[in-house]
Amino acid sequence: MLVGASACGGGGSDSSTGKASGDDAKAHTNASPTPTKPAGPPMLLDTITPQTGTTVGVAMPISVIFTNPVATKARGTVEKHLKVSASQQVAGAWHWMGDKRADWRPKTYWPSGTKVKIDADLKGVSNGNGRYGVHGYTHTFTIGDDVRADVSVTGHTMKVTRNGQAVRTLSINAGSAEYPTWNGTMAVIDKEEKVHMTSCSVGISCDKGSPNYYDLTLPWDVHLTQSGTYVHYSTGDPNPGSGSARGSHGCVHLSMSDAKWFYGQVKQGDPVTVTGSPRAKASADNGYAAFNMTWDQWLAGSASGQQTTTTL
C-alpha cells in the first residue's frame, strides 16, 4: 500500500512520496552476489512493482524506485540495464518521475495474457552520483483479464467491462464541488477489505466540530491514488446514484452490495477512468496514473526513448 494513502483524498497532495506499492526488491528478488569490491557506495533498489509472480491489469506500469537519486546524465545507461521482455512484442518506454522513480508503461494497454519479465541488471552500473549497482533483480508477472471501470461523475454511474464485454453498470456518487474526484485513468494500486480513513490524515480537517471531519473504518476499499482516492462503500453516503449535493471528499461511493461486488472484480493495475469531474487529471506519479500522460509527454521523460520488448 502506498504511504500516506489512508483516507479519501480530496485535499491530499498529488505527488509521490517516493514509495511504491510492491515488495522490497532487496528481499524478494533473485539477487546476484555482490561483486568483490564495489567502486563506491552501493546503488540499491527500494522496490520493484509489480511483485514477482503476480497477475495484474492492463494499465499496470513497471515501477522501479531507487534508494538514492539517479543523476540525469546516468539515466540513459540505467534504462539500458532495466530490460523488459514479454511473451509478445510490446512497444513502451521508461519515464522518470523525479530522480528516484522510473516507470515503464506500454504505449497502449498491455494485451491480456502477456507474460512480462523485468531484469534490473545493475551490477557495476553508476547512478551518476558516486554509487554503483551491486545486485541484479528479476521480477516476472502476468497480465490478466482486461477489466475496466468507467466512471461518469455527471451520470452517477460506473460501467464495468471484462475483455470488452459489459458486465454491470453501478450507481455511484463522486466528489463534492469542494472536494471533486480526480479525472483521468488511475490503475488500481491495491485493495483492502477495511481501511481506517480520517480527514486529518489528508489535510481536510482535524477539527472534530467541522462538517468535513471524519474518522471511519469503511469496507471494500479499492485504492486509486496515493493522495487517498478510493472506490468503496461509505456510511456517509447511503444512496449512491442519487446525485447527493453533499458528495464525497474525492472518493467514488458505491452501495454496500455493489462495493463488495466491485472489490471482487478488480486487481492491481486495472484501469478506473473518471470523466465529468471539474478537477484535473491525477498526475502520473499519484499512484499508477501513467496513462494520464499522452505518449509524447511520456517519451519526454525518457532518456532512451521508445523500445520494443524482447521476446521471452
Keywords:
mainly beta, 2 domains, globular, 312 residues
How do the strands and helices of this protein lay out in sequence?
Elements: E1 23-24, E2 42-43, E3 45-49, E4 55-56, E5 62-66, H1 75-80, E6 82-86, E7 91-96, E8 101-106, E9 115-121, E10 132-133, E11 136-143, E12 147-152, E13 157-162, E14 165-171, E15 184-187, E16 190-198, E17 215-223, E18 230-233, E19 252-254, H2 256-265, E20 271-275, H3 295-300, E21 307-308, E22 310-311
Parallel strand pairs: 2-10, 4-11, 6-22, 12-20, 18-19
Antiparallel strand pairs: 1-3, 3-5, 5-8, 6-9, 7-8, 7-21, 9-11, 12-13, 13-14, 15-20, 16-17, 17-18
Write up this protein:
7% of the residues lie in helices and 34% in strands. It is mainly beta and 312 residues long. The strands form 5 sheets. A 6-stranded antiparallel β-sheet has the order 1-3-5-8-7-21. It has a 5-stranded mixed β-sheet with strand order 4-11-9-6-22. The protein has a 5-stranded mixed β-sheet with strand order 14-13-12-20-15, with no helix packed on it. The protein is built from 3 helices and 22 strands.
